[in-house]
Amino acid sequence: MNRKKKAQREIGPVSKQNKILLAMVILSLCLIIVIIRLFSLQIINSQGKYERQVDQLVEEVPITASRGDIYDRNGNVLAKDSSASAVNVIPFQVEQPERLAKTLSSKLGLKVEDVMAKISVLENDIVEVKTGISQSTAVTALSHNFPGVTVEDNVLYFEPIKITDPDAVAKSLASDLDMEYDEIHDLATRKENTAVLIKGKVDNALALELKNSEAIKNDAGEIESYNGVELLNDYRRYYTNGNFASYILGFTGADYNGLYGVEATYNDILSGENGVVYYQKDADGNQIASQTKILKEPVQGQDITLTIDSNVQLMAEKAVAEAAATWQTKSVTAIVMDTKTGEIVAMASNPDYNLNDSDTLDATFTATHSEDIKGMTDSEKLLEMYQNPAVSFIYEPGSTFKALTGAATLEEGVVTPDTTVYCAGSIQVGDAVINCSTGPHGTETVSDAIATSCNPGLVQMIEKLDPDVFFQYVYNFGLGQKTGIELDGEESGIINRLSTANGGINQVDYATFSFGQGLAVTPIQMISALNSVVNNGYYQKPTIISSKTKGTETEESPKQIISTETSSAMREIMRKVVQYDSSMTALSEGYSIGGKTGTAEKFIDGAYSTTKYVTSFYCFAPVEDPKYSVYVVLDEPKAGAYGSTSAAPTAISLMEQTLNYNSADTNLSNVSAEAVQKGSIVVPDLVGQTKAFAASILDEKGIKYSFDPATAGSLVISQSIPTNTVYDASTEIVLGLGDSTSNTSGTVVVPDVKGLSIQSANEILSGLGLNLKITGNGFASSQTPAATTVVEKGSDVSVTFTP
């Protein structure tokens, strides 16, 4: 008994200690839970809660930075910002959605369904539904597992954009929360209360007209709202001449970032740094007018200067347009380059597109590329149209490549210009027969074989050269790799080194390489490679960005691929190319020009086409010390076209215009003394240009001019001295003006459209409110009424076009 009581006395204290220990464990666990909860709320989840609070109380509105301007080498503005409006809608404030959708779609050229989707978008922020709810109510509300319904700190929230069934949410929670169905349903379907962009870069007048048309007035005639429409300041990129240099400049997208051309490649420099403005808003998302705004000013982008000369670019664009019309081509591309520096003076392709309306497919492109874009969506067709043929068109160069073969074989000493080869009209290589399209020539020198474009002669030359050595020259000339010019979409071309089954060189493929078959290049690659042949062997990387923009940026020194002696020999051989062709001799009379033609069958679906060709011509001047080079490529000209008949006339004419334009340097050509007298210049084509742009060109050239006082307007519609004539310093050019807003009410001055293409004539006439009536095709040769006639707007102008 005593032992039992003693045991109980011993057990009692132990049991009490256990209870205390248990209580301490429980308290510790509770404390740990509280600490974890506090850590979660204040540390882990604090950022999210803070962001939600900021979103509810502060509105952030971005301010787009103005982009830098783009200039040509002479300081002419090619692209700049202009003021515009961004049309936005605040869906929460829209009272008449159907009316608004109809207005926006009709005035902005949008689809009604797309607009309706934007103005009906639900709030993507949390919306406070009820505060101070009990834990049991929270559990009940969350037990339905509705997406977009959350509870935090005894507050129930909706995120409307995530709620999939607002009707079910309203029905289920009405009793749980002791609220009306309609009130909950309105919160669950609440529209976005911040601005939703409908369309940016809208003309200010149109945007204001649109906003005013949506004004909703009360019975007293006072404007209560604008049906949710809100206009914000915006910029749009304005390109001074629409289609001018479209593939070089490129354009900007909806986010104001560059998409193509130098707008894309130099976007980081041009775009600047956007700003932002913050302002406080109330619980409904409305700005509190009395509160202070916080503003971070935008930083304007930097300007860039290109190497192109606007005047030579205009010449190039006119040249490719004429060639395209004459030869009914798929496309024509021309590049004018400073041979010694690699600077692009002009780069033009036809068809092109309007940079100020880049979302519209060019009609000519649609027609000439119908096979390529068949089955594509409109977006895919636009992507095709934006590709710059000068850097992305891949083709077999044909005979222009013979200049590279000649340079490599001469440099390696396996032949000399006087080495003889024999042309029987064809040559057997393995089991293949390679024909000569210009022979048979019999025994001829290497110099003549290149000049007469003799395939068998070139085959015999390349067979003397080790293939590994030859292909190293090909790579040194920059083929098979991108040139690195500052334009988007450049292709690398294709250089195949086909081998036989035992790993040896495929003799047939190697032989055809000699005359430019079995490889693929781009126009920018070929003109750069050929320039190195005539530029004392030095390869200059092509560039479109002026040193004014590059500054002291250092580039690799040009590499010398062939010797000065070999280059000199090749220049004389390429002079013969022009001299041996009577038509090219006549075209280049009085000028020191060398060149090389090319005509190549297109490789389509695994076989060479017998109907589709690429013709080309490369020329440089003067032969003794080349300053400029011109390369013209015609894709799929009509039947009967050869490099000498289609590409050469365009290239030689463009070369002569370039030389005359720069004729203050008397070393550029050997034309008559009158044509090259110091200070003489060629009159540019100014018709269709703005008054300011025309004046800047004439001021730059030192040409005396005046505007016809009997005319008024912003566009040049006539000029007293014809285009491309040598300017006489004792004369003055008189420019006639006109535009769609003639000072004479209801009337307009008829412009002179003679010499223009159908497209160009139509653009000028339609811009003046006149209707073009077409007879024939080609270029305008006569018109009725005559130029300078004053007629009513809407009148017809009958124009006869001839090839």
- CATH class call of the largest domain: Alpha Beta
Query: Can you tell me the CATH superfamily of the largest domain?
Result: DD-peptidase/beta-lactamase superfamily
Q: Determine the CATH topology of the largest domain.
A: Beta-lactamase
Using only C-alpha atoms, the radius of gyration works out to 37 Å
**Percent of sequence in beta strands:** 15-25%
Distance between the termini: 136 Å
Helix content: 25-40%
InterPro entries: Beta-lactam/transpept, Beta-lactam/transpept-like, PASTA_dom, PBP_dimer, PBP_dimer_sf, PCN-bd_Tpept
Protein name: PASTA domain-containing protein
Main location: membrane
Keywords: Membrane, Transmembrane, Transmembrane helix
What labels describe this entry?
803 residues; alpha+beta; Beta-lactamase; 4 domains; five-stranded mixed β-sheet; five-stranded antiparallel β-sheet; 28 helices; 22% strand; globular
In short:
The protein is an alpha+beta fold. The strands form twelve sheets. Strands 2, 3, 7, 10 and 13 form a five-stranded mixed sheet that branches.
Verbal overview:
- With 803 residues, the chain is of the alpha+beta class.
- The protein folds into four domains: 2-44; 58-65 and 82-239 and 285-296, no CATH class; 391-661, DD-peptidase/beta-lactamase superfamily (Beta-lactamase); 691-802, Trypsin Inhibitor V, Chain A, CATH 3.30.10.
- The chain is 36% helix and 22% strand.
- The chain contains 28 helices and 34 strands.
- Strands 2, 3, 7, 10 and 13 form a five-stranded mixed beta sheet that branches. A five-stranded antiparallel beta sheet has the order 15-14-26-25-24, with helices on both faces.
- α3 (97-108) packs across α4, α12 packs antiparallel against α26 (643-661) and α19 (455-462) crosses α21.
- The N and C termini lie far apart (136 Å).
- The model is unreliable at 664-680 and 740-745 (pLDDT under 50).
